[in-house]
Structure to design on (356 residues):
């Protein structure tokens, strides 16, 4: 029998929703992003990054290469991708603009511990010198889900999680075309999600929930039919509890299926543990399927505000055979810190002695 609501449901299933574009272009005279878009880490330097990570340790000397001041209000930066092709270099930063704060309840209400607050999810485009090229707002005014977390670039799209800004709430995964900044809702998840990477090879997306305590795997070949079914949550294929409590990952980049780790899907993540006045920063290589860290290194550098540089976005590159980290820890008036791991830094005998 013909049913308009079934037709609507069927259309919604094949047409993921595209949200209206809300973008301010500050520099119409320069390209928004490089053309052609560069390949992803997984398609290029992922294995080399993983190899270089093996030389890191507590005693690695992180040489400061540059501190680049980023133009304009950067809100709260959460994630970052660096797109370079030819002489065009772009940093695309996911950020949260908060109009009303979340307020802690003194109890758990509807599974969560604070009021929703209000704000906007942004993707802001900068050039390599920190000049602001454009600022796209991905969410409408009054949206309950407005927190844009850690992001990744898969060679074609930027992947974002847009979530309620509170634990154990809801989120959706959005896919953004960087050449236009148009975003599509891909699937909705019944938990907060604060970061995502996309594996083009398997078409899996891996998401991290509040504090990256759980990692979820969704296979888009099997789940695409659920896209944009407003109000329908997609169940992950699997959920893995994060066994590591050193830091909570804030932003991850997919490195591909590394031969070094028997072809497991590996992501590079950075994060922090803030415990009162004690702050620990670190980076890790993590098996995206199981959340098991396969390599972990603490990072001691702090920003101008005293927080670990790994507090928010991270990107990574290999320049002249050396590993570079790009980090943007501070809110509103942000500096991009660029560090390079000095080769030959002592990475053995780095212990504190103990009873040996
Ligand atoms: C960047 O700032 C840090 C912290 O103030 C400083 O130690 C470092 O020398 C600066 N790096 C450069 C390249 O100016
Ligand atoms: C929570 O408890 C604190 C201390 O008792 C109180 O000041 C605050 O108003 C309470 N908050 C709410 C939302 O009830
Ligand atoms: C909890 O959920 C119920 C049912 O959806 C809703 O009516 C109520 O307003 C929610 N409470 C809060 C504090 O959000
Ligand atoms: C998450 O929220 C749901 C209700 O929405 C609740 O049943 C569940 O216990 C909550 N989980 C945690 C870990 O608090
Ligand atoms: C960025 O800075 C470098 C070095 O100061 C300069 O050569 C280059 O032209 C600048 N690029 C842009 C896009 O302003
Ligand atoms: C566009 O985004 C800005 C925030 O960056 C917001 O103030 C404005 O209301 C948004 N416009 C629409 C139509 O949503
Ligand atoms: C992690 O996932 C498991 C299994 O779904 C669930 O029982 C647990 O509450 C989750 N923990 C957190 C902190 O989200
Ligand atoms: C932004 O931060 C830089 C570096 O700490 C500082 O020099 C500058 O004055 C700040 N600008 C504003 C507008 O706060």
């Amino acid at each position: 029998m013909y049913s308009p609501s079934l037709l609507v449901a069927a259309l919604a299933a094949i047409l993921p929703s595209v949200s209206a574009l809300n973008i301010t272009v500050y520099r119409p005279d320069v390209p928004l992003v490089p053309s052609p878009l560069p390949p992803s880490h997984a398609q290029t330097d992922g294995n080399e990054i993983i190899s270089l990570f093996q030389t890191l340790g507590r005693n690695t000397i992180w040489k400061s290469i540059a501190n680049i001041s980023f133009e304009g209000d950067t809100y709260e930066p959460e994630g970052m991708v660096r797109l370079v092709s030819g002489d065009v270099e772009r940093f695309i930063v996911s950020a949260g603009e908060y109009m009303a704060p979340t307020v802690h309840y003194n109890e758990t209400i509807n599974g969560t511990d604070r009021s929703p607050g209000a704000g906007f999810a942004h993707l802001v485009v900068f050039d390599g010198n920190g000049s602001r090229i454009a600022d796209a707002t991905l969410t409408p005014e009054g949206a309950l889900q407005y927190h844009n977390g850690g992001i990744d670039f898969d060679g074609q799209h930027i992947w974002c999680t847009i979530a309620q800004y509170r634990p154990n709430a809801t989120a959706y995964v959005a896919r953004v075309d960087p050449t236009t900044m148009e975003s599509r809702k891909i699937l909705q998840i019944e938990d907060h999600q604060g970061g995502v990477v996309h594996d083009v090879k398997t078409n899996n997306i891996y998401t991290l929930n509040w504090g990256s305590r759980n990692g979820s795997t969704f296979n888009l070949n099997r789940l695409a039919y659920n896209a944009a079914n407003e109000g329908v949550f997609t169940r992950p294929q699997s959920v893995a509890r994060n066994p590591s409590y050193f830091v909570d990952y804030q932003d991850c980049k997919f490195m591909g299926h590394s031969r070094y780790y028997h072809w497991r899907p590996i992501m590079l993540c950075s994060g922090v543990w803030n415990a009162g006045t004690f702050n620990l920063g670190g980076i890790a290589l993590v098996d995206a399927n199981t959340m098991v860290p396969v390599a972990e290194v603490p990072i001691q550098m702090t920003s101008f505000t005293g927080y670990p540089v790994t507090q928010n976005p991270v990107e990574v590159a290999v320049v002249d055979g050396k590993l570079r980290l790009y980090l943007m820890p501070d809110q509103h008036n942000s500096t991009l810190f660029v560090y390079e791991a000095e080769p030959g830094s002592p990475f053995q005998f780095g212990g504190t002695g103990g009873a040996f």
Observations:
- Residues 29 and 133 are 9 Å apart (CA to CA).
- The radius of gyration is 20 Å.
